[in-house]
From TrEMBL:
GO terms for molecular function: GDP-mannose 6-dehydrogenase activity. InterPro entries: 6-PGluconate_DH-like_C_sf, NAD(P)-bd_dom_sf, UDP-Glc/GDP-Man, UDP-Glc/GDP-Man_DH_C, UDP-Glc/GDP-Man_DH_C_sf, UDP-Glc/GDP-Man_DH_dimer, UDP-Glc/GDP-Man_DH_N, UDPglc_DH_bac. It comes from the Bacteria. This is UDP-glucose 6-dehydrogenase. Belongs to the UDP-glucose/GDP-mannose dehydrogenase family. Pathway: Nucleotide-sugar biosynthesis; UDP-alpha-D-glucuronate biosynthesis; UDP-alpha-D-glucuronate from UDP-alpha-D-glucose: step 1/1.
C-alpha cells in the first residue's frame, strides 16, 4: 500500500520504517528539514535501537523516503498516518495544534495530489488525543472540503511504542486497535498491518482514543504503587523488590484482568482493613503514600456517585438487588451496598432490598454485628423475593446477576436501572432505563 506518515519523531519514524520494511511504499513528512535530510540519507532522525538499520534498508530499497512537502506524500496515498506531537498545554490540556495543522495540510494537499485507485484515503490519527477529537476535530476538517476524486475516511489507530524498544514494540504490540465507523478504512488498516498477524479490535473512535490514556495511566499507577510499597516496607526491614518479584508471579489476580472492570466500590473483610493497616504503617514510619490513601477516598466517591444519581433521578422508591460485598457470599462486612442503603435510608428514600444469598437470621459473629449496626431496621427493608423488592420501585440498583433477580428486573422494567457491577446481560441492557458501568 501507499502510505504517508506525517511527523518523523519517535512514533512517526518507527512507523514509517516499520511499514516500509514490510513492503509498503512510505513517504514521511516533517516540517523539520534536518529530520527529513537525515532520513533521506538513510539515517534515523531519533535515537532508537535498531531503527537506523531499518531506515537504511528502507531508503536503499526505495520503499521509504522523506519530504517537507505534504503534497508529495499524498500523491496516490491510500493511508495517511498522523504521528505528530500532542504536548500538554498550560493547564494540563492536550495541545492539538500540531494535529490540526497536519490535518489542514493534508486537506489542502488533496486539491493538488492525484487520488489512489478507487479514491479512498484513510486519514488515521496515531497520536495520543482525548476522546472526541476524531468526531469534533478530525472528521469536520474533511466534511465538505475534499477535492474531486478523493473520498476521505477518518480513523484512530493508537500506537503502543515505548522509547528505547520502539522497533520491537512495533512488530510485537499488545494489540491492534482500529477505531472507525467507515468499513473501507477498516479494510485498509487491516491490510496495512496484516504482517502483525493479530486480530484487529474494531471499535468506535472514542474507545480507541481513550484506550491509550487508560494504558498509560495504569502504567504510571503501577510505578507509583511499587514505589509506595517499597517506602512502607523499607521501614520494616523488608526487601520490597523480592516482595514484588513474587507478587508478579500471581497471574490469577495481581497481573491479570481480575478487578480491572469498571463497577461498584470494593468492600469485604480484607481489602478495607488491610489498606487501613498499610496507612497506619506509613504514618508510623512517617512515610507518604498518597496513592494508597487516595484509593480509599476514590472508593468512597463511587458510592457517593450512585447516591447522587439516585437523587438526580427525582424518584424516591428504590429496589436494591444484592447487599453483600460481592456475589455468591453473605458477607456484608464493609459492603459498599450496605453503605449505599444506609445513605439512601438516611435521605428518606423508600428502600427495599433482596439478596439471593443473604439470610439475616443465619448471620453470625462480626458479619451479623456489622449489618445490625449499619442497618438496624433490616427486617423492614429486606424483601423475600426480587419481585417484592422491585414492586413499585422507580429505581433499581443491581449488584447481583442471579437469574431470579434478572427475570424480576425484566418484568418490572423500572424507570432507572443502575447496573453497579456491569455483570448483567444484553437482555437487561435493552431496558429503557438501563445505565451500565461507565455511566
Amino acid at each position: 500500500m501507499r502510505a504517508a506518515v506525517i511527523g518523523l519523531g519517535y512514533v512517526g519514524a518507527v512507523t514509517a520504517a516499520g511499514l516500509a520494511a514490510r513492503g509498503h511504499e512510505v513517504v514521511g513528512v516533517d516540517v523539520d528539514e534536518a529530520k527529513v535530510a537525515q532520513l533521506s540519507a538513510g539515517h534515523s532522525p531519533v535515537v532508537e535501537p535498531g531503527l537506523n538499520e531499518l531506515i537504511a534498508d528502507g531508503v536503499a530499497s526505495g520503499r521509504l523516503r522523506a519530504t517537507t512537502q505534504v503534497v508529495e506524500a499524498m500523491e496516490q496515498a491510500e493511508v495517511c498516518l498522523v504521528c505528530v506531537g500532542t504536548p500538554s498545554g498550560a493547564h494540563g490540556e492536550t495541545d492539538l495544534s500540531h494535529v490540526e495543522r497536519a490535518l489542514a495540510g493534508v486537506r489542502d494537499a488533496l486539491a493538488v495530489a492525484s487520488p489512489p485507485l478507487g479514491g479512498l484515503l484513510s486519514v488515521v490519527v496515531r497520536s495520543t488525543v482525548p476522546p472526541g477529537t476524531g468526531d469534533q476535530v478530525v472528521a469536520p476538517i474533511f466534511d465538505d472540503a475534499v477535492a474531486d476524486g478523493w473520498e476521505v475516511a477518518t480513523a484512530m489507530c493508537p500506537e503502543f511504542l515505548r522509547e528505547g524498544c520502539g522497533v520491537a514494540d512495533f512488530y510485537d504490540p499488545p494489540f491492534l486497535v482500529v477505531g472507525t465507523e467507515h468499513p473501507g478504512a477498516r479494510v485498509q488498516l487491516e491490510q496495512l498491518f496484516a504482517f502483525l498477524d493479530l486480530p484487529a479490535h474494531q471499535v468506535d473512535v472514542r474507545t480507541a482514543e481513550a484506550l491509550k490514556y487508560a494504558c498509560n495511566a495504569f502504567h504510571a499507577t503501577k510505578v507509583v504503587f511499587a514505589n509506595e510499597v517499597a517506602r512502607v516496607f523499607r521501614s520494616y526491614g523488608v526487601d520490597a523488590r523480592r516482595v514484588m518479584e513474587i507478587f508478579c508471579e500471581d497471574h490469577k489476580l495481581n497481573i491479570a484482568p481480575a478487578y480491572l472492570r469498571p463497577g461498584f466500590a470494593f468492600g469485604g473483610s480484607c481489602l478495607p482493613k488491610d489498606l487501613r493497616s498499610l496507612h497506619h504503617m506509613a504514618r508510623e514510619s512517617d512515610v507518604d503514600v498518597p496513592l494508597m490513601f487516595a484509593t480509599t477516598t476514590s472508593n468512597e466517591l463511587v458510592v457517593r456517585e450512585v447516591v447522587d444519581r439516585v437523587v438526580a433521578s427525582g424518584r424516591c422508591r428504590v429496589g436494591m438487588l444484592g447487599l453483600s460485598f460481592k456475589a455468591d457470599t453473605d458477607d456484608v462486612r464493609e459492603s459498599p451496598s450496605v453503605d449505599l442503603a444506609e445513605r439512601l435510608v438516611g435521605k428518606g428514600y423508600d428502600v427495599r432490598i433482596y439478596d439471593p444469598v443473604l439470610v439475616p437470621e443465619d448471620l453470625v459473629g462480626e458479619n451479623r454485628a456489622h449489618l445490625t449496626s449499619r442497618l438496624p431496621h433490616l427486617s423492614r427493608l429486606l424483601a423475600p423475593t426480587p419481585e417484592s423488592a422491585l414492586a413499585g420501585a422507580d429505581v433499581a440498583l443491581v449488584s447481583t446477576a442471579a437469574r431470579p433477580a434478572v427475570e424480576a428486573l425484566l418484568a418490572a422494567d423500572p424507570a432507572v436501572v443502575l447496573d453497579l457491577h456491569g455483570a448483567l446481560g444484553a437482555e437487561v441492557e435493552a431496558l429503557a432505563g438501563y445505565r451500565g458501568t461507565g455511566w
